Amino acid sequence: MSESAAMPAPVGANPSDSAAAAAVSLSDGVREALAISQRGCAELLPQADWVKKLQRSEATGQPLRIKLGLDPTAPDIHIGHTVVLNKMRQLQNLGHTVIFLIGDFTSMIGDPSGRNATRPPLTREQIEANAKTYYQQASMVLDPARTEIRYNSEWSDPLGARGMIELAAKYTVARMLERDDFTKRFQSNTPISLHELLYPLMQGYDSVALKSDLELGGTDQKFNLLVGRALQAEYGQEPQCILTMPLLEGLDGVEKMSKSKNNYIGITEPANSMFAKTLSISDEQMWKWFTLLSFRSEAEIAQLRAEVEGGRNPKDAKVMLAKEITARFHSAAAADAAEADFQNRAKGGIPDDIPELTLSGAPMGIGALLKAANLVASNGEGLRMVEQAGVRIDGTVISDKGLKVQPGTFVVQVGKRKFARVTLS
């Protein structure tokens, strides 16, 4: 959810940011860095300040400090998370310092962004278990040799009660309640716990501790990022700029990518699954994925889109995207193999690598067999798939819901993607 209500005013921002930036005579290097920063982003605030930071960095050779914080609320990362990681990698390639911040302290508070109810904080054990995989997976996008990894418990734990009170004194309740989700909950008499008001403060304090020049986040993080600017000013630092990226819609093209909505592609998924899922998105959605997930230049993407609008099959472009994403998290060879596997399935072929299992109880009802082979969740679902002509045994469509499968070894298929080689006795 984008923060559409009133926001803390960006320190030093003014309506003529874009005009001011355009009026400055920029070097080729700064112009390129600005273009890379803006590619696919929702907002860059304040743009004029970011231009000044880029100019200073170019003049002094001092890299800028670019921060991204992620709370380890789940053990795995999906490609929706990599939208911001991709932007970090692009800025990293320009020579700037990337700080991957694991919010082990803030996870215990629970980020209220976009929520209409208090989120239960995670336990220390849950956080530590999830954090183990976070950086390892993020390193599949970022360059580990040029990434500074930090944990915000480094400076948050030592604050203590006195430090927390001093920090809270630097921000007002009125400004905190301007936050869109807090406003709605307050107006509807939905409880807001005091610890939730501390979350934006603690995330903002991270920027103070790290002396951040730029903080990245999704559009739902805009309020928290702006609090960081305000706190840096309170502590006498040059305020960071903020860059928000759009939230990536999932495979359904409607809801933001989320494991809970089962519309995601995990970055540790098998190559064949990753490739096939990418091909399943709509032709229109594909272009947003190109902008946010591809490392191809905007000129290349524009040329490809022009070719599709001129009559080229959009599937050609989607295959390019699927192979690029699959190769990034596996290898070019794995992407090629995934494409071949997909084409084989499209022709009704059987994939090379399918689960093999041995079952007893022949003769077995078709619904029970499909469930026992982990191809459906229940006997009823299996029978519905038979009704819909979605079940094959050794390539033959099964239409009899009362079928009793006799002993033998055969390949069972449900839908286009689920296969198992079953030995039934």
Structure description:
The protein is an alpha/beta fold. The chain contains 18 helices and 13 strands. The chain has a 6-stranded mixed sheet, with helices on both faces. Strands 7-13-12-9-10 form a 5-stranded mixed sheet. Strand 2, helix 4 and strand 3 form a beta-alpha-beta unit. The N and C termini lie far apart (53 Å). Its main location: cytoplasm. It is found in: Cytoplasm.
| CATH level 1 name of the largest domain | Alpha Beta
* Spans of at least 5 consecutive residues with low confidence: 1-16
Structural class: alpha/beta
- Ends apart, CA distance between termini: 53 Å
Global morphology: globular
Tally of discrete structural domains: 3
The CATH topology label of the largest domain is Rossmann fold
Residues in β-strands, percent: 5-15%
Overall mean confidence score, pLDDT: 87
- For CATH, the homologous superfamily of the largest domain is named as HUPs
Number of helices: 18
The main sheet comes to: 6 strands, mixed
Specify Rg, calculated over alpha carbons: 25 Å
Strand order of the largest sheet: 1-6-5-2-3-4
Q: Tally of extended strands?
A: 13
